[in-house]
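Run log, item B.
One chain of 317 residues. Sequence copied directly from the ordering sheet:
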Amino acid sequence: MGKRVLLAAPRGYCAGVDRAVIAVEKALDLYGAPVYVRKQIVHNKHVVATLEARGAIFVEETTDVPEGATVVFSAHGVSPAVHEEAAERNLKTIDATCPLVTKVHHEVRRFAEEDLDILLIGHEGHEEVEGTAGEAPSHVQLVDGLDGIADLKVRDESRVAWLSQTTLSVDETLQTVAALKVRFPNLMDPPSDDICYATQNRQVAIKQIAPLADLVLVVGSTNSSNSVRLVEVAKEYGARAGYLIDYAAEVKDEWFDGVETIGVSSGASVPEILVEDLLRELARRGYGDVETVTAMEEHLLFALPPELRKDLKAAGK
């Protein structure tokens, strides 16, 4: 078939990431620099560096923000304790938590109000997991993969529910849920699927491409859970090799030995300009024939955080 690129669609920015990045940009325009951001607004090196160049200051905790300053909470969400800390320091807060993560926070609170034990499927240390578990820490136990399921202890095995981090592999999560249901036959499901539409759609697209690809390149940062999952899914579904890169300059000559078909996608926090850079690099290497493989169309948009919308309206912007 000759050298070609199969370009996944959808790819790149999801509605939650788009909303969070625009929230920081609008805050900088409205309030002026510096605007503080707790944690990385989204997990992408390029996005963070671009916003830093405009005057955003990324910090680890609200205690690192000067009293009375403006702070944006990242798309991954924060616990009630973080909101309380911000209020104590008189910080002006803009909550850019993805609405789909907020939905999981609501589910935690509802299950906790019913006094259920909650098994949260996710990756230890991930910011989203920390924020979600923080809604009801005495009710939540983290389940990070299949190891340890047999040793889980709950108060009443007939009153247990599961939830999940929004950016996991769909297949891996279903496997974990199946194992949990063997351990807890009365396990209650969440009212709706927790894994976000964008994570699922990008995985569906890469599953279509992977069996046809000698090499899959996913643009994304190593701390981006959904980007890492895309590489794993590609290999699982038949790609001979797969790599995660932040920038086109990171591709290595040896990856292309014997390669005719290359699959390309990007994580949900990756701007399209980085994919375009990669496609130019691949064209330079002789892979100029690009075919888009569309799994589905995406049209979802989220409104900006209400506190920011209110200030923009007051400023006539």
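Observations after the first pass:
- Residues 115 and 247 are 47 Å apart (CA to CA).
- The mean pLDDT is 96.
Flagged for discussion on Thursday.
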